[in-house]
Amino acid sequence: MSFNTISVVGLGYIGLPTAAMFASKEKKVIGVDVNQYAVDTINAGRIHIVEPELDVMLKKAVDGGFLKATTTPEPADAFLIAVPTPFLPIKDQDSIPEPDLSYIKSAAKAVAKVLKKGDLVILESTSPVGATEQMSAWLAEERLDLSFPQTHGEDSDIRIAYCPERVIPGHVVRELVENDRVIGGMTNKCSQASIEVYKTFVEGDCVVTNARTAEMVKLTENSSRDVSIAFANELSIICDKLDIDVWELINLANLHPRVNILQPGPGVGGHCIAVDPWFIISKTPDESRLIHTARQVNDHKPNWVIEKVKLALANFLSKNQNKTIKDVTVACFGLAFKPNIDDLRESPALNITKELSKLNFGKLLAVEPNIIELPKSLKNGIELVSVKTALGGSDICVLLVDHAEFKSIDMATLENVIIIDTKGIWNGGLK
Ligand code: SAJ
Fold first, then answer.
1. pTM for the complete prediction?
2. pLDDT tens digits, residue range 347-403?
3. Which of 148, 149, 220, 402 is 20 to 30 A from 138, comparing alpha carbons?
4. pLDDT per position as a tens digit, 335-346
């Protein structure tokens, strides 16, 4: 088998670096995306997403003639599908979100038109268990002249596999090469073909399993982290009630050689850890009790932080009876979804700040050293200020993200301020 032309369908945070990586190894790469702007930007040798090192790699690939982007699939030997798998809108707050596989379906239908005997189709998008078999069924519906693994096993004309990505944003270029890959072929030949494709650039091990297990591996990795963080978040709420410093508690418990508790925070953000467990829960709602509860614990944490701020406000006003809420200045330290990045999407810190703005404090300040402008949703009544300005005149300081800049703050400057520290970097934590 030889895969000389590789098509990557979906040129986002995973698809684009993957396409550029194949092209850097001088494979002929056809990138496909429905977004004309993305296609034009890539063909001009530029990137439409933020990822270190990718710009240089992509420009070289395009200038060298190894990578081109298009809105319609063209014939290739292997197709990698890396399209979004969002969730359908929920009916009410208590309902379980259901995945929306429509992007996979339209990608499959588009790819089916150009498939030929011997081709390999790999699904990379984070997906519920069974999505790869479903994708193969959609392909088969379109191409009655070709045979697929679900009906013809090892003798099928087309090979199908699920191979999840596990790269962390900010280090995608390095992790694509170094990380081990889980290869979930629908048959062994499908797995072997996929290994051949990935070995173009992967230096980690390519470990073979079946498609359903590979789908579940990806969901398990992120659910495991979500459950572990929920344990830490629950401990922080318990400790607050029992007047115990949770950070000290975790440090001490982690001295045990077989205990490794993660860190509590204001909630879980980002596009993976807080999302992927729902793929398991929606498929097996009665069986996923721990995973579901962990999601609820982590989703509840921002509300708990907001209640803490309200309590602090009430204490402040009862000690300063000549003042009203209009005299109170609150500063939120951090808006990003985790430390030392500028990514504000699905960020609990951002949502907490947004909710606090509804309380109509005299002033609500936001400190986020990694951005130069507030997002539109926060512009109403919130001021983006420096660390120094926030420390100068705030009555309540709410630490939401453990950015490096906040760790070096001189504690003397916080002496007369009420502190709500959700990350435990200022004098322990929540007081
Ligand atoms: N968080 C805590 N406490 C902790 C660790 C994290 O509250 O002890 C919070 C963070 O502040 C953040 C959220 O969890 O709000 C998620 O951050 P993260 O660093 O745990 O993960 P992501 O979303 O940046 O990337 C994860 C990674 N998965 C795992 O570590 C199992 C990455 O390897 C995956 O490729 C990525 O999801 C993905 O794309 O699925």
1. 0.93
2. 999 999 999 999 999 999 999 999 999 999 888 889 999 999 999 999 999 999 999
3. 220
4. 999 998 888 989
Choice among 272, 332, 354, 423 that is catalytic:
272
pLDDT tens, position by position, 157-209 = 999 999 999 998 889 999 999 999 999 999 999 999 999 999 999 999 999 99
The distance of Cα 249 from the centroid of its chain, to the nearest Å, equals 29
Q: What CA–CA distance (Å, rounded) separates 142 from 416? A: 69
Q: How many angstroms is it from 219 CA to the middle of ligand 1?
A: 13
What single-letter amino acid sits at 354?
K
CA of 262, closest atom in ligand 1: 8
> Is residue 258 a contact partner of residue 293, using CB atoms and an 8 Å limit?
no
Which residue among the candidates 27, 189, 218, 354 is catalytic per the annotation?
A: 218
The residue whose CB lies within 8 Å of the most ligand 1 atoms, and thus the one to mutate among 126, 338, 342, 344, is 338
